[in-house]
Amino acid sequence: MTSRALRRLALGAGLTLLPFLRADDRQPPPLVMNAPVKNWALPLFTEEGNRQMTLRGTQAQAITAEHIDIVDMNITVFSRDSAERVDTIILSPSASYFPHENRATGPGRVRLIDYRYALEVQGDQWVYTYDRDGKKISLARNVQVVIHAPLPDFLK
Q1: N or C: at which end does the chain have fewer Cβ atoms within 10 angstroms?
Q2: Distances (CA, A) of 19 to 23, 26, 37, 121
Q3: DSSP for 75-104?
């Protein structure tokens, strides 16, 4: 298959060709806005093969190879061991995911449900980062925290 035919096929399928260009293709391809994908899911695993997290959305669109916009984002974070317990769920109506930076972010509302600490956090203008050592969420505005666990001796 020729390089030109491969480009046409990939563009028709909504794929980005940047990683597949040969050195003798002197002209870079035009910036391609990929077609949105419905009911998108991306499972991520640890080096040991355990589930780390699953990102989902009712719609996702790759802006570049390093930027994916997601509608109705749901990040389910697992315990990262063989038990694969759900640790945290993060929900947002609109988000951007940056896979090479291990980061998701959004300008609007986010809701975090943490089963390990029995709490819920909501806020606006958020950034979620993760790596092999842990995870962190930052909220800039309108933060609300609800603790579902008993707090004995809280007022003492």
Answers
A1: C
A2: 11, 14, 20, 39
A3: EEEE-SSTT--EEEEEEEEEEEEEGGGTEE
Candidates 124, 47, 53, 127; CA nearest to 89 is: 53
Question: Quick one: 105 and 53 in the same domain?
Answer: yes
The CATH number of the domain where 58 resides is what? Answer: 2.60.450.10
- How many Å is the maximal CA-CA distance in the chain? 76
Query: What would the pLDDT profile of 34-45 be if each residue is shown by its tens digit?
Result: 689 999 999 999
Measure Cα distances from 69 to 21, 36, 66, 96, 104 in Å: 24, 9, 10, 4, 10
Q: Which amino acid appears at position 128 of this protein? A: Y
Give 139-151 pLDDT, tens digit per residue: 999 999 998 888 7
- With respect to residue 156, please indicate whether it lies within any of the assigned structural domains: no
Which residue ranges of the chain lie beneath pLDDT 70? 1-34, 153-156
Q: In this structure, what token pair is assigned to residue 83?
A: 């038990």
Report pLDDT for 155. 66
Phi/psi of residue 35, nearest 5 degrees: -65, 145
Instruction: Give the SS3 label for residue 140.
Output: strand
At residue 33, the pLDDT reads 57
* Domain span at 123: 33-147
